[in-house]
Structures are given as C-alpha cells and as structure tokens.
Amino acid sequence: MITVASAATRPFVLSWASTRLPVLLVAALLLLGAGYPLALLFLTSIFPEIMGGRFEGFLDAYRRIGETDGIGSMLWNSFAWAGSTTVVSWILGVPCGYLLARTNLPGKLWARLSLLVPIMTPPYIAALSYILVMQDGGFFDQLLGPMPEALRAWFFSFWGVTLVMALASFGYVALATEAALASIPRRLETAAAQLGASWGQTLRAIIIPLMLPALFNSGLLVFLEALSNFGVPAVLGTRANLPLLPAEIFYLVTSWPLDLALATALSSLLCLVALIALYGSRLLASFMGGGRYEPETPHQFQLGRGARIIGLAWFAGLFVLSTLLPYFAMLVTSIADQWQGALPSLTLDHYRAILTPGSRGSEALFTSLWLAFAAATISIFLGAWIAYVISRTQGWLRHALEGLATLPRVIPKIVLAVGLILAWNAFWVPVSPYNTVWMLLLAYVVIYITDALNYANSRLQSMDPALEHAASILGASRWRVFFQVVLPQLKPVLLAAWLTTFIVTMRELVASILLLPPGLDTSATFIFNQFEQGDLAVAMAMASITIALSSIVLVVFQIRSRPRAPT
Amino acid sequence: MQTPNSDPLLECRQLRKTFGSHTALDSIELQVHPGECQVLLGPSGCGKTTLLNLIAGSLAADGGTLSIAGTVMDDPARGTHQPMQTRGLAMVFQNHSLWPHMNVEQNVGFGLKLRGTTSSQRRQRVMEILERLQIAEFADRAISTLSGGQQQRVAIARALVVHPRLLLMDEPLSALDARLKEELKSEIALLIRDTGQTVVYVTHDQGEAFALGDRIALMADGRIAQNSTPEAIYQSPSSRFVAEFIGSANILAFERRGDEIVLDNALRLAATNGLPANGHLVVRREDIDLSPGKAPPPDARPNGVLPGSVRHSRFLGDRHEILLDLDQGMRLRAFHRSALACGETVGISLDLQRAHVVRS
User: Among the four residues A269, B308, B318, B354, which has the most C-beta atoms within 10 Å?
Assistant: First the structure.
C-alpha cells in the first residue's frame, strides 16, 4: 500500500539525457579504454604515418610481412608452437581429467590441487626455473652429472619450449575434461552398453563426441594463451633460437631501430587470429549443440592395483615436472651463495637485498603491491558498475557494449599494450599519463577489468530486477539503488574478482615491461631484468617472494570467505 | 499373454543386494515369463530401481542367482557377473537418455548398427518403428528440438527396434505432464501387447501399474510384499501394507466376540461366516453403502448398519468421496454418487462379504 502511494505521489520525471546518462558514460569509457587504442593500432598498421598526420604507405607494413626474410617462418613457428603446445596439453591433461572424473583413483583432492599449482604459477617464472635446471652447469649437471648434449639441445629447441608451456597449461585441459566427463549422465553410456556396445565402442560413439566441445574449447584457450604469451617466448624462445610472435612484437617496439608499422601489423594479425578463433568457436559451439543434464553421480571405473599405480604415477610425474622441479630450482637458487661441489652454501642475502628499504628490489615490490591493490580495487567497482549498466540495457546497444567490454579478454595483452602506447602518445592527446606509473595503472585496469565484468555478470544474470524495482518504487535514486541494493549482492563475486585481479596484476609482465617509465620496476620486470643481467639469485628470490605473497593473499581470502559448515 | 507353463525368461532366486551396511534388496524371488509385463511397484526407496539395475547388469548382486533365458547372469557365490552388453536387453529411462549428438534416426539405429545391419535394412526398420510410434516425421530432427513426450517415444523406439529379449522401463512416464502420460500409457500398453514384448516396468504410480501390468510386484523395504495379477493384488491384498498402498482402503482392526465382531475396539457388528478370531478388515470405499438421513438409533444394530455423519465431501468427477465420522472417533472413507452436506447423518452399511481379511 505504502509503495503504491509514494510512487503515485512522487512520479519520476526523466529526460532522455538522464535516463541515458549511465549508458552513455559506459559507452564513452569502453570506447576510450579499449576501442580507441585498438582502432588506432589497426589504423597505424594500415597507414604507418598516421601518427604524424600523414596517410602515406598504405598497407606497406603488411606488404613487408610477406617480403621480409624470417617473418614468414617466425609466424609459421608461432602457430606451430601454439598448436603443438595445445596437443601436448591435451595428451597430458585429458588422462588427468578422465582419472579424476571416471575412476576411483585414491587421493583425488591432492591430485586436483597438484593441477592448480602450475595454473597459478606464472609461465615466465616456470621458464626461468627450467633454464636454471637445464642450462650448462645448471641443477641437472650439478646433481645428476653431465647432461647428455642431445637432451640439452632438445630442451633448448622448439619441443623444450613447447613442453614448458604445456606444463603450464595442461591443468586447464584436465579440469575442463573432468567437468565435461562429470556432466555426462551415466544412462547415456548404460543405454549404449545394453544395446551391446563395448567399452571402446561407447567411448568412440558416445563419450568422445559428447566431450568434443569441452576438449575443443579448452584446447582453444591453451592455443590462444600460448600464441599471445610473451614471457615464455621472451625467456626461453630466445635461448632456443626460436623467435615467436609476441616476443618479436616486443623487440620491434623496444629495440632500435623501432618499427612501429611492422609491430602494429603483426599485432593486428595476432588480434585477428584471436578474434576469429574465439567467435568462430562460439559459432561452432552453437552448431554442435550439446545437451544439458541435471547432475548425477557418473559411473566410476574401478581401477585395479596396477592401473591405480599407473594413474598415481601419471599425476606424480606431472607434479614433479610442472611444480617440484621448477620450484626446487627457484628456491635453491634464491638461497644459494656459492656452489662448491654438489651443494651450495646457503644464504638469505638475496632476500635481504630485496627487502632492505630503499633498495631497487623493495621499491619494485612496493610498486607492484600498490599498483595491484589500486588496479584490483578500481577494476571491481568500475567493472561492477559497467556490468550492471550493460545488464539493464536492452537491444542492439547492449550487444554493442557487451562486445566492446569483452574485447580486452579476447585480445592478447601485448596487442593492447602496444595500442595503449600509440593511443596515449599521439600528438592530439593534451595531457598524457605516458611515461608515468599512472599509464601502467590505466593499462592494468583496461586489461583486467574483464575479470570483474565476468564475475559481476554471472551474478547479475541470476539477480531478479524486481529487487531494484522495489527500491526504485520506494523512491531510491539510481545511485542509491546501485550502491545499496546491487553492490551488496555482488559482494562475494567481487571479492573473488578482486583476488584474481590482484594476483594476476602482481605478476603481470608484458604490459609492465612495455609501459613502465625508465628507472621504475615492478616485481615482474625486476625478475625479468635481473635474470637477463645474470643476477639469477636475486631474480629467483623476488620470484619466490611474489609467489609467496599472492599465495598468502589467496589463502587468507579462502579462509575468510569459506562458507560456514552446516551444523 | 501369460503362458505360465513355459520356462521363465527372467528368474531371480533369493537375490540380495547390499550397499555398505544397508540391505537394499533381500530374498527376491521373481519369475517373468515370455510375453508378460511385470510391473515393479512401490514407494521410493523400496528397491524397485535397484532390482531393475541388477536385471540390467549395471549393478552386481551380492547373493542369490539371476538368470535370463536359462543362462545364469549373476551368481555371486561362483563369482559370475555377466556384463550388460551380453544380456540382450534394452532399457527406457525416466528422461534425458537420448544421445544429444545424434539425430532421431541415428539414435534409434545405433543398436542395429552394432548388430551389423546394412544401412538400407537399418533405415527400413528404423522408419517402421518410428511410424509405429507416430514420430516418423521427426527422423532427421535433433534431439534437443523434441518435446519431452516425443523424446520418450524415441527412447522407446530405440529400445524396441533391436527386439530385446527383455525390455526394461524405468519410470518412463514420470517426467511427463498428466495428459501426455495418459496418452503414452495406453499406447505403450497396446504396443507391448501387439508385439508380445516381455517387459519389466518400474513405477511408483498405481494407475500405470494397473494399466500395463500382467503381474504387479509390490515392493517394500527391499522385499517383494506381494506379486500377483492386478485384480488379485487389489481384491486380496496379502498384508496391511499392500492394502494401504493399493487403492485407498479403510483398514479396520477387528476381534470376534461370539456372533459379533468388534471394530476398532468400539463398534459392534453381526459377524459373517468365515472370519478368523481377529485381524484387519480391508473395506474398499466402493464397498460401503450410504443411506443419507437414515441413521439407525445409537444402540440398534440391524443388519450391520452403523450411524455416522458427513465430515467432508470431495468431488472426484464421476463420484464423490465422503469422509465420515463415526462413534468413538472412528473414520471411514466411502464413495457416493452425489455430494452430501457436511454434518448430515447417514446410515453406513459395510459389505462384509466383499471385505478382505488380512491377519494382524
């Protein structure tokens, strides 16, 4: 009764501008943050002189891709490398997923945890650690005696780089496989078996076709991640004499002579592949269909003793390769003083060097911490608001805004970073944050806001607009509705988004290295630079601290947000 | 139909299944003859689905034996458990059991393909069964475009097309809405009678059991409480549980005292011949006759007519169910052709000749 009365006595008077204001603001933000840099990137790749205001050399850069020696083979290598990383990840990950979903393997909780560690470890740190193991005079040589040269040559080649990247990515495939298998109801297999299908026939005719979408999608994710990864190609690719796309773009933008035209053309190409792959896969997914089932406990295959041992050995072997070995190398290097025979004397000097106030290391760490904190905080509030406005918009505008908002997730980080350099270096920008630390904060928010958007979106989808209408009818303003009705409901997902954003920005390498002003480091660039300058111990000490810090944040949040056990 | 002299197609002897410390099935004795439709009826948790899974072979028995067409499939004492591939059965599940990546024709043809038929033979047999189930027009459709009822028709076609020795149906209608359920129920009944298909049909719905079953095995707590024809299980329930589950019968404890019987320790009636000293009397609602306004005086008991009053009258479409208050707080349910006013006094006569006795 009261609501009706107040709604009637206080009708809203809304002009076009005030109803449209949030949508316009969101559109402007998205266009400025993601649309403008990318548009400029494409334009520069087509008109290399556009930044100087001239439209000369139309498509020159693309012509040079075809004509310059080495670029063709580099592109081919990049795709082949990302492709073989995907295949190796499938080979490593699919059996893990099958064992977890469909067998009575003991210790599944630990097996699942062992998959999460490599997912959480930044690939460039794993690559650096692997170099410490495999290089001439590295851990392998020290502890196991001289390594066969053939093995060393194999590792510092296409396949070694593939293996390191696959070890960082197979966890995705394993978890996606497990989820897909767990969602196939047992009766689909029972029906086939009763009609006389053997285990192999059921696998071929029923299970594999039903899993294909999940296999394909996880593979695509790995493929794009590898194709656009900068750290592993920059660290290991260069040592394996294997030039790969993101690293090449990086060198074109940072090493003399700069070649922005070629860099933007290669970036556009990379971007195009990513866009085609992702939207193509969506099209394909809608084509392949796939059923929805209510959850059911799937059939679990009873493993014999031998099969159990093989299954556990599979997980253990992958754990050793993907986690134990790199972490051992990282930690031991960070505390090693001098190598005398097989064992080094130990010291904490490298940690002290980083943690001493005023040192370059402590400054880098501090810069990373506050940047990650600021980026995560800005991202979740801005992301929640953008997601909210988009979710309450209708029609074509909504699709346009959604497309724009998801762009940064699809587009490789190095491409966005190059786009941002162009965008904020242009002569028409009056006040530019370029060459200050604020540029990096801007880049982090642009790149990682999609996490907050996704998390917020998933919750908003299931939220009844009636809750907001109830508040509006009582006379609450739009801002009040957002802050007092919408935001509180988003709190749990935003907390998760904050955590994710904080952790990934803490270790972000490529945007940092491209956008940081001279003389300033983040922990990631510090690790990268120290390693390249040969100060391995300090680099690894910083890597250990970074991983430890983000793990602590993760654990603290997990404990705080753990749902209370039902009593 | 029923051919009791032939060898049973399915035979369970002392079949037992345990899950940890819980005994899901115990001492199951069941014989299904060729051409029969055996219904397993019971409340949820009674073990009917477990028994179906044992027959299907997706679960292994822990005791007793299970044979199909004379071949032992399960004999845990000898370590025998034949995998479901070898049993020659087919199953229709409650819902969502069609393969979503195959169209209707591919789903139905899968079993024939495994049996190595040529594609033209397969096409012909698939189309025949689809036509029989009135879904031939959907042959090329994707499963996700079909309604629930159409999907169940496809599932039935997929099972029938291979001519299984035994067709297992696990609550195939329970996910459908009421109208579709009625329609498909009578169609299934016709289909299995026309084809002479031997069926084991699991349901918790008494109406389905009566419509489809040649025999109904009512299960409770992992045992078969009674296994007989629908008429027999309705008219001569073997226990109080069966009487309560099948139809809403009035169940009255009685004791014989000379030439009278005392119901629920309160109401006296002239005894009829053949009643034991005590037990429970099962009186169906249709076996109670009501005479509105003709309640006998409280102490007179001419011809076993009892006085009572109407508490509630419920319209069932073709008749009314009347809830009656009797002396001593006793209550009865009876059918009457018309509605009765609340509070109206009635004379109640029980047809003791048609009442069935179950021992206490």
Answer: B308
* Minimum-distance CB partner of A195 among B101, B143, B162: B162
CATH (domain of A482): 1.10.3720.10
Selected for mutation to probe chain A from B104, B107, B110 (highest A CB count within 10 Å) is B110
The per-residue pLDDT for B52 is: 93
In a domain, A339, yes or no: no
Q: How many helices (H) and strands (E) are present in chain A, helices listed first? A: 29, 2
**Average of per-residue pLDDT across B91-97:** 86
Number of folded domains that form chain A: 1
**Stretch among A192-196, A559-563, B298-302 having the lowest mean pLDDT:** B298-302
Give the DSSP H/E element, type plus range, for residue A225.
helix A208-228
State which residues form the domain around A96: 21-45+83-215+299-334+348-561
User: For residue A326, is pLDDT > 90?
Assistant: yes
Alpha carbon of A310: minimum distance to chain B alpha carbons (Å): 25
| CB–CB contact A185 B115 (8 Å) | no
Residue-level pLDDT at A11: 43
Fold of the B248-358 domain: OB fold (Dihydrolipoamide Acetyltransferase, E2P) (2.40.50)
User: Domain for residue A393, yes or no?
Assistant: yes
Rounded mean pLDDT of chain B? 87
A373 within domain boundaries: yes
The label of the residue with tokens 């030039």 reads A243
Q: What is the dihedral of CA B275, B280, B286, B287, to 10 degrees?
A: 20
* Min Cα–Cα distance to chain B from A199, Å: 9
Percent of chain A with pLDDT over 70: 91
At B31, which helix (H) or strand (E)? strand B22-32
Q: Check B100 against A288: CB less than 8 A apart.
A: no
Q: Does B93 contact A at CB distance below 8 Å?
A: yes
**C-alpha to C-alpha distance for A430 and A149, rounded to whole angstroms:** 57
Number of Cβ within 10 Å of residue B230's Cβ equals 19
Summarize pLDDT for A383-434 with one digit per residue, the tens: 999 998 888 888 788 888 888 888 887 888 899 999 998 888 887 888 888 8
Q: What is the 3-state secondary structure (H, E, C) of A245-285?
A: HHHHHHHHHHCCCCCHHHHHHHHHHHHHHHHHHHHHHHHHH
pLDDT at B140 over 60: yes
State the virtual CA torsion across A172, A176, A179, A180 in degrees, nearest 10.
-170
DSSP B81-118: E--GGGS-EEEE-SS--S-TTSBHHHHHHHHHHHTT--
User: Superfamily for B10-237?
Assistant: P-loop containing nucleotide triphosphate hydrolases (3.40.50.300)
pLDDT at site A1: 36
User: With a threshold of 0.90, does the pTM exceed it?
Assistant: no
Residue for token pair 């999907």: B151
- CA B175 to chain CA centroid, Å, is 17
Whether residue A292 is predicted with pLDDT greater than 60 in this model: the reply is no
Per-residue pLDDT of A181-232, as tens digits, reads: 888 888 888 889 888 888 889 889 998 888 888 888 899 989 998 998 999 9
User: Where in chain B are all domains bearing CATH 3.40.50.300?
Assistant: 10-237
User: Greater confidence, A54 or A196?
Assistant: A196
CA dist A461 and A402 (Å) reads: 14
pLDDT of B62 higher than 90:
yes
Query: Rounded to the nearest 10 degrees, what angle do helices A60-67 and A71-102 cross at?
Result: 80
Interface check for B129 against chain A (CB to CB < 8 A): the answer is no
Which residue do the tokens 């049993």 mark? Answer: B87
Please indicate, yes or no, if residue A221 is contained in any of the structural domains: no
Residue appearing with tokens 């093995």: A151
Query: In angstroms, rounded to a whole number, what is the distance separating the alpha carbons of residues B253 and B264?
Result: 5
Q: Helix A71-102 and helix A108-120: axis angle, to 10°?
A: 160
